[in-house]
Amino acid sequence: MPNPKCPFHLSILASCCLSLGINAAEDDPLSREALFGDDLPQLSSPSSTDKTGSGIRGFMQFEAADTVASPEHWSKLRARTDLSDSGNLGNGVKWKMGARFDYDFAYAINNFYPPDVEKNQRRDIELRENYIDYGLGDWDFRVGRQHVIWGEMVGLFFADVVSARDLREFVLPDFDQMRIPQWAARAEYFTGDYHAELLWIPVASYDNIGKPGAAFYPMPTGPNIRYLQEERPQRNADNMNYGLRLSTLKNGWDVSAFAYRSSDVSPTFYRQFDGPTVVYQARHDRINQYGSTLSKDFGDVVLKAEGVYTTGRSFSVQDPNVSDGVVRQNTLDWAVGLDFTLPAESRFNVQLFQRRYSNYNPTQIPDREENGYSLLFNTKFIDNWEAQTIFIASLNRTDWLLRPRLTWNFERNWRLLFGADIFKGPPTGLFGRYDQQNRIYSEIRYSF
């Protein structure tokens, strides 16, 4: 996801990402699986979410994207292989290993992007989830590289504060493709209707924002703009991350609260001047986040809400008298949504969201209160065809993203996908600054 503090977008919309699912709590809190099973990924339990002992799983896919703005060019021709395996060592010990391999031919067949961008995005080898699980009575322990998902609104990142993200395609990939696992030790305790989670991340992962000049780099480029190498926190005790999360399921109401101390996964761009040249450097502030989530299944309608209060984060300002170009502010982010199950295997989701600055600086581009909304419609038709459209927009100004998509599951384990990503808005808007990145795309995937 693009940097929520850079001076060229709307801060509240910086949490926007595209999701393909919403999860509802079970009404009958009788077991750990009912409380915290696969239906609630934000409450995922190490012992209840993994399937073990069935060999290598994963997928192979090829993705192509053609950027239609002048000059038209291929912006993605990527082959991706994602592999994982899991097993049971006995005595309550389980394991999982995974890796992902990418090669993007678009950066090999043209010279449209700068050399640093080509080098950064042509090929990737990435460790995915690699961990050991151990269960002891009411306690579950997971140690290793893992996803920690504390919230999941449709189309938005709010309470999902632990995850780092691959943002080299802005907010366009699915959540499961964007998330970068964290090296963490996690302990979960279950008793009755309650669940407690302790989290320690000794070596943190951070958002991958790519290199200047990339299609979706979160900051502008130009002859009088220069970027220093990103400064990431040193790997020491002062920069370790810690979290505590408590949750319960009562009468169908799933409610949680958490506190998280971390080095921000998303960078702030600090500014200085070197003569007529503006010099930026991405750095990661030390922040505190306090949040809550709730959800309730009302039959054909699911209510979900999340809120996060953040302290210690800095934001860019336009005032040239501010020496480093940023000011520290506290923010409150919240979102509320309704998900409707409709006839004919259709679904409609609507959400409202806001970011509010508690000590607003008038030289910021975002307003004191940045408001937005999202709409999702999904339906299945004919045999194995599915259509979906997502629209995310600001209520403060004309700035939006439209994503129509058509999927054909033409054979068992095979899918073919066609879609478009359309941006509109002012140059300083979250979406408008990418109005030259409108694209059509396709994807074919085989899962095993």
- What characteristic shape results from the CA principal axes? globular
Uncertain segments are 1-53
Number of contiguous helices: 4
Q: How many strand elements? A: 24
* Class derived from helix and strand content: mainly beta
Averaged pLDDT: 89
Can you tell me the number of structural domains? 1
Q: What separation lies between the terminal Cα atoms?
A: 29 Å
CATH superfamily: Porin
- Measured by DSSP, the beta-strand proportion falls in over 45%
As an assembly, this protein is single chain
- CATH class identity: Mainly Beta
Helicity level, as a percent range? under 10%
Could you state the order of secondary-structure elements as H and E?
A: HEEEHHEEEEHEEEEEEEEEEEEEEEEE
**Main sheet makeup:** 18 strands, antiparallel, barrel
Task: Summarize it.
The chain is mainly β and 448 residues long.
Describe the protein.
This protein has a single domain (about 10-445), classed as Porin, CATH 2.40.160.10. It is built from four helices and 24 strands. It has helices at about 30-35, 105-110, 115-120, 175-180; strands at about 55-65, 75-90, 95-105, 125, 130-135, 140-145, 165, 180, 180-190, 195-205, 225, 240-250, 255-265, 270-275, 275-285, 285-295, 300-315, 325-340, 345-355, 370-380, 385-395, 400-410, 415-425, 440-445. The strands form three sheets. It has an 18-stranded antiparallel beta barrel. The protein is globular.
